[in-house]
Amino acid sequence: MKLERDMTCTEIVELITEYLEGGLSTADRERFEEHIGFCDWCLAYLDQMRHTISVVGEIREEDLPDELQQSLLSAFRDWKAGSA
Amino acid sequence: MIAYKLLRSDGTGPFSGREWPPPGIWLEADAVDACRSGVHACRPRHLPLWLGLGELWEVELDGEILEDERKVVAARGRLVRRVDAWNAEAARSFQDACAAEARRRAERTPDLAQYAADVTATPVASVSAYIAARAAELQDGSAGYDAERARQGDWLTSKLGLAG
User: What is the ipTM score, two decimals?
Assistant: First the structure.
């Protein structure tokens, strides 16, 4: 019954997007959900992420003012360069 | 089959985000596939793993049913009743039982004393149960973990009057 390796809170944070997009393997999904099953804090984080996606997911690209679009593009461009 | 389900306070499944219909009305699934599709619930012995997810409900499952080590998955299910016996007082008693077991283990293995203290100190019953199971694992390996989870499941079954 015991899973071979537990998932930590840090791993939950790293994997949450992939989890919500259905990208985790069955084994990782099981480990992810078992951690959420007891960890109040990660469950709250999952709830917040799901809520954020449901609200922000309604915003279309054309809804953003040009200035905000450019600033986001610039931020991500720099982030990519910084992480390379 | 009677089984159990933890739901968020708004009546949604914690993982699927799906809203369950009111008691008595069937929730139908397209397919039965553990962790992917189907109506997910659990046996009382699985409950210690999922206790942190919300309100405890008794459910009836029907159609194709897949039994897993940690859950059951069915083609359809419906809520029967909320298990009101699982409340703050019961959660505290459950934590006390986990703490007593962890202290018993710490007497045999003094290195586990901090685990026993943490079981008592945490405000969340599901976390207490997890720490107690981890202490058991450190003492007796994965068999110890399983034995502690089984003990917790038996406690819940007995004290909450669940259908085993």
Answer: 0.79
